[in-house]
Design brief:
The chain is α+β, with helices and mostly antiparallel strands. It has 13 helices and nine strands.
Length: about 350
């Protein structure tokens, strides 16, 4: 458990008089000019949104709830949702090995179960060893990592066995899941998301394809604030390639809060002590929630869901995931989720 989650819980009373904008200013005071945040508070009966842009040394209101951001690893929640739908209709099973979808995988990967991949408990590394653990500024780390290269990759079996069963976050695991989706259906990842979730929910602007003008894309930034090229995720699209807005992701999130569907219940259930399907399980004192964060070269994001209270927080931003303060996006989301009262009256605030 992250120590800052407990710290947040202890500081709630001392900071409760701060407005959301004032708390943003406390958490994020060394960010580049033109950094944007799009924040959504959501319950089963109400929602509030707040857009902010850092300019001239201060946070100012910005109408950006319909603007598109790179969401990074929040994409994994939609990958997990697709598999949860298949588990619910019986066309796939959590215990099913990856070799049933991708028979050409090497032995170290062939018997890894779909459910274990979804809960990051297979022992797979964070990234393949021929990429490395940390992309560089202005890099495009996944651009030449296509499906063929991914399927030919074979991690060391000894390393997998050492970690197997323990929670070990893996972008590589979700890349294999997305490759399996495509092999099973004959459709690409974008088409699968559109058919299963995006189009049925009316999310017209959410996509894994890079937005083109006149789409309202918020440009991703390097840590120094210069504009950075968007990553080409290639075979890792199912790990981090989604563009969306707080408005449209909020529609998907509202379904997670209110729908009584077997797939959604399965996503939120404790399939592993540290994880649901796609979700990471978090706690601070007596409070419990589910979480997924995202970080790319140009964006960082956090999505938190408390099913027992039917409350959720979403923050999208163009603060680089390589910025030293990028972790503050998750800290801010946790603080806002644990606030009492939860839902601010944003329109009435004078900040």
């Amino acid at each position: 458990m992250r120590i800052f989650a407990l710290t947040v819980a202890l500081l709630l009373t001392a900071c409760s008089s701060l407005s959301p904008t004032e708390h943003v200013a406390r958490q994020l005071h060394q960010v580049p000019e033109q950094t944007e945040l799009s924040i959504l508070w959501l319950s089963d009966s109400a929602s509030q949104s707040l857009g902010l842009r850092y300019q001239q040394g201060q946070w100012q209101r910005q109408h950006n709830q319909h603007a598109l951001f790179g969401t990074g690893s929040i994409t994994k929640l939609l990958t997990a949702h697709w598999f949860a739908l298949r588990f619910a209709d019986g066309s796939l099973q959590p215990e099913q090995p990856m070799s049933s979808l991708l028979p050409e995988l090497c032995p170290a990967l062939a018997q890894l179960e779909l459910g274990a991949l979804l809960t990051h408990s297979t022992g797979l590394p964070f990234l393949p060893d021929d990429i490395g653990d940390m992309p560089l500024i202005n890099s495009n780390p996944f651009a030449d990592y296509d499906g063929h290269r991914l399927q030919q990759h074979c991690p060391a079996n000894s390393a997998i066995q050492q970690r197997q069963g323990r929670y070990h976050y893996s972008n590589l695991g979700y890349a294999y899941l997305a490759l399996g989706m495509q092999a099973m259906t004959g459709l690409d990842y974008e088409a699968l998301l559109q058919a299963a979730m995006l189009q049925p929910l009316g999310l017209q602007h959410s996509s894994t394809e890079r937005p083109k003008p006149p789409a309202p894309l918020v440009a991703g930034q390097n840590p120094d604030g210069s504009i950075t090229p968007d990553w080409d995720f290639a075979a890792f699209t199912g790990s981090g390639g989604l563009y969306s807005s707080s408005h449209e992701l909020g529609i998907w999130l509202a379904q997670q809060l209110t729908a009584n569907h077997p797939a959604i219940r399965s996503m939120q259930a404790a399939h592993h002590p540290a994880a649901g399907l796609g979700w990471q399980r978090r706690r601070a004192g007596t409070r419990r929630w589910l979480e997924q964060t995202g970080a790319t070269g140009g964006y960082s994001a956090a999505l938190l869901l408390a099913p027992d209270r039917r409350q959720a927080i979403l923050i999208l931003s163009n603060l680089s995931g390589l910025h030293p303060d990028a972790v503050a996006i998750a800290k801010l989301a946790e603080y806002l989720l644990l606030q009492n009262p939860f839902m601010p009256n944003v329109d009435a605030l004078k900040d």
